[in-house]
Input
Amino acid sequence: MRGLFALVLLVGMGLAGFAVYMVQGFVSQQETALAQERAKTARNVPTTQIYAPTRTITYGEPILPEDVTLIDYAVAFLPEGAFATFEEVFPDGEDVPRVALRQMEINEPLLAIKVTQPGRDAGITSRLNRGMRAFTIKVDVASGVSGFLRPSDRVDVYWTGSVGNGSTQSFTQLIKSGIEIIAIDQTADGDRSGASIARTVTVQVSPQDVGILAQAQSSGALTLSLVGDGDDSVTGDVLVDQRSLLGIADDPVIAQAEAAPIDEVCTIKTRRGAEVLQIPIPCRN
Output
């Protein structure tokens, strides 16, 4: 009986050892095949090394040398503005860091558009392109698209008002199209989410457009209209008055009467006793 038990034990151990040997062989074959596939892929897709964060970096955080590392990236899909050398990331030395303008995740390519210039903070001046100026527009829940605006969004600006002293005829006109928002209230964080009622919106425009928007804001009401992502369509002239809004055609009799010249009448006043008379006389220029 004991001999039979020992024989069964030996057979079981042999089978277990054979199974382990087979599993090891299978794993080894798979690792070899995987290494071959990786080598083949590396030969077929040229790669280069660029810098990427080693941790999640949020808006406004400084980027230090220990926060970045080199990663392999396909040359064919290399994004514009990537940093390939340490000197490109820190051109003024390690003591002069850049600051994140957007949140970046681990191994996400570090791009020039997502960081400030060395030594600059994350304020709106770092978002202004060359030759552009910042202008602040006052908004409320209606004119500010119910708070669904974020930095980097583009908007159309409409002006509503009337022209002329005492005029009761008001109209709305598109005065600027597709201008970029660089800040909401006192923040330029482009990663802010959710709706919040803003009091001011800061946009990026040319110096000439600053004058246009300043004059428009002081003489009427400005309303913003959000432009969709990737919308590159050209908006034509938009002008709406009360008559076109209600579909009322201009009365030709009234228009003719308004256009008809009015003859100038000159008079002098003369008193005859208790009566004052107005006597027509030729007008002199």
